Amino acid sequence: MVSYQRPIGSGFGHHTTTEDVLAGVDLTGRVAIVTGGYSGIGITTTRALAGAGATVVVPARRPDAAAEQLADVKNVEIAELDLADLGSVRAFAQSFLASGRALDILINNAAVMAIPLTRVGPGWEAQFATNHLGHFVLTTQVWPALVQAAGARVVSLSSWGHKGSDIQWDDLQFHNSYEKWQAYGQAKTANVLFARHLDKLGEPHGVRAFSVFPGGIKTPLQRHLPDGEMVGLGWIDAEGNDIYPWKTPEEGAATSVWAATSAQLAGMGGVYCEDVDVAHIADLGTQEGLDRGVNAYAIDPVAAERLWTLSAGLTGTDLP
């Protein structure tokens, strides 16, 4: 509920790590799916959950690469999935359901960022299609396994980048004009709205959903950005040295892991989290509001339901 969209005083903060969050937490017998769980903060998320005893399923567009990256991690299963190919998403989901297992944790972590205009499927803009629609279909398809679990949680990774754009309702697929950061912003706003409405639908079934901003972490997510652009953004200097105060991967993954496991969030859902706490609603008239918090349009319940209906229509998929 939006009424919950305020810090709860978790006792954690900007430099909290996954180890801090999981201290004393035993996930033995739990099953998690982490998309993108073999790269960037995804691999740190996978390692943290598996280290606490969970069985972690890592669906990967490049299963061989995932197997190589996670070769030293116990309790990990690798499967093939391409979020830009909804047939692949459905095939993965059906395979998982066929195992008969309950799904305790689903972390929709994989993403692409600020890429050149790319179209997938029936002409969908790739950032919206991959970051939002692929995860929408995955979540709705594994829904029976989430309901089967006792108190399942779904975590949708968003970003500070959601501040770059509301949903472009009149040109969702950027047919009129394309700007990569606006498209990224729309996709990240969609991630927040998705969690907002999923939580409303899931609460009666014991399934709660959260969206999170992990913070600025230097990962392969930046691979599409030329050095000159990162200089202009203030991330690196002209010699390529880091000047942005990046979080470590362990710090970056902490908010996702906390949202997926913490007893502090019992009875809550639909909220946007950052720095291992529930975020405040941003006051865009202040610098803090520009830098932190969640923009009100990203947690608007009417917009969340509208996006859900639109996404179901585009993909031909909805909750059973």
Describe this entry's structure for a reader.
Helix content is 37%, strand content 12%. It has one domain (2-315): NAD(P)-binding Rossmann-like Domain (Rossmann fold), CATH 3.40.50. Helix 4 (86-98) packs parallel to helix 5 (126-141), helix 5 (126-141) packs parallel to helix 7 and helix 7 (180-202) crosses helix 12 (301-315). It has helices at residues 18-21, 40-51, 63-69, 86-98, 126-141, 143-148, 180-202, 227-232, 249-252, 254-261, 287-291, 301-315; strands at residues 31-34, 55-60, 76-80, 105-108, 119-120, 124-125, 153-157, 208-213, 272-274, 277-278. The chain is globular, with a radius of gyration of 18 Å.
Summary?
With 320 residues, this protein is an alpha/beta fold. The chain contains twelve helices and ten strands.
Question: Keywords, please?
Answer:
single chain, 320 residues, alpha/beta, Rossmann fold, eight-stranded mixed sheet, 37% helix
Number of beta strands: 10
Query: CATH first level: which class?
Result: Alpha Beta
* CATH architecture classification name: 3-Layer(aba) Sandwich
Distance between the termini: 23 Å
Query: Which geometry do the CA atoms define?
Result: globular
The main sheet comes to: 8 strands, mixed
The SS-based structural class is alpha/beta
The count of domains is: 1
Per the CATH scheme, the topology name is: Rossmann fold
Count every helix, treating DSSP H or I runs of 4 or more residues as helices.
12
Quaternary state of this entry equals single chain
Low-confidence stretches: none
Radius of gyration: 18 Å
**Superfamily (CATH H level) name:** NAD(P)-binding Rossmann-like Domain
The strand order across the widest sheet is 3-2-1-4-7-8-9-10
Mean pLDDT: 93
Give the SSE order as H and E letters. HEHEHEHEEEHHEHEHHHEEHH
Helix content: 25-40%
Strand content: 5-15%
